[in-house]
Amino acid sequence: MTAQILDGKRIGAQIRDEVAAGVELLRARGLRPPGLAAVLVGENPASRVYVASKVKACAEAGVFSEKIEMPQSSTTAEVLARVEALNRREDIDGILVQLPLPPQVDEGAVLSLIDPAKDVDGFHPVNVGRLVLGQPAFEPCTPAGIMQMLRRSGVRLQGKRAVVVGRSHIVGKPMALLLLREHATVTICHSRTQDLPGVCREADVLVAAIGKATLITHEFIRPGAVVVDVGMNRITNPEEAARAFGGDEARIRQVREKGSTLVGDVLPTAMWELASLYTPVPGGVGPLTIAMLLSNTLKSAKIRLGA
């Protein structure tokens, strides 16, 4: 079977172009552009990279953005005060607090204080509840982006069996709810699932979001399945890279020369050999997350501006 790539870069670019067009329509009506505030607490290197990429994407789409940096020593009260101030600002339509927060900051308290109407990450309990009930809500960006990718790639979900590996609040649980909304029959798996390979082999659509490099191997994938790999892990061993990427010398050389390469939760050779459609890592799910953040921010602005 020749697997085909689900091109997250291409679909993410489509969504970002649609957002840019929506921003231009607001401007043409004499309205302000959407505004997004990104709160970055501490010095986590990965978080700094993520926030920078979000700010850059905003600029490219014509969305106003403001990066708010707070020291590693910030208290819960200080972060809450900053979020409350953003809740009151009329020029801010979306608020994201980059996770993880430093250990002394109460993540639940911070996320719960964000105005649900500005919760473009879709993490507020109100938006989570609306998602469960099938009501209009801001959907978490990664699962929402995956749904856009499947829809725009012509993947039918009605009546299909979907398996989600991972039960996080950010990906696994909302992913299952969105698949269920499209009338798929959904199973959520996790570290305590018995016969995990056997359950995964039942899937027409398999979503891997468990955070363990190459955990999903050939024995997990039914031939012809659609495989969505949400994982983003680094491997540093050339022998491990050779196992993961088979004869892909470029990826093996990357480990030798740069010290590491990115790999998902699914063994790449297993996807290539068994899937009908699959997402590469990188370039699969990642670009969709930022695209949906912009889409949610535009949606919030249109609601708040009555547009």
Characterization of the model:
- Strand 2 (35-41), helix 2 and strand 3 (64-70) form a beta-alpha-beta unit.
- This protein starts with a strand and ends with a helix.
- It contains twelve helices and eleven strands.
- It is an alpha/beta fold and 307 residues long.
- It has a six-stranded parallel β-sheet with strand order 1-11-8-7-5-6. The chain has a three-stranded parallel β-sheet with strand order 3-2-4, with helices on both faces. A two-stranded antiparallel ribbon has the order 9-10.
Features:
single chain; 6-stranded parallel sheet; Rossmann fold; 307 residues; 45% helix; 3-stranded parallel sheet; 11 strands; alpha/beta; 12 helices
Strand elements, count: 11
Q: Main β-sheet: number of strands, strand sense, barrel status?
A: 6 strands, parallel
Q: What is the CATH C-level name of the largest domain? A: Alpha Beta
Distance between the termini: 48 Å
Helix content: 40-55%
CATH superfamily of the largest domain: NAD(P)-binding Rossmann-like Domain
Indicate the CATH topology of the largest domain: Rossmann fold
Q: What is the mean predicted local confidence, pLDDT?
A: 96
Number of helices, where a helix is a run of at least 4 consecutive DSSP H or I residues = 12
What is Rg?
20 Å
What is the number of independent domains?
A: 2
Q: What is the CATH architecture descriptor of the largest domain?
A: 3-Layer(aba) Sandwich
**What would you call the structural class?**
alpha/beta
Identify the strand order in the major beta sheet: 1-11-8-7-5-6
Series of H and E elements: EHEHEHEHHHEHEHEEEHHEHEH
Uncertain residue segments = none
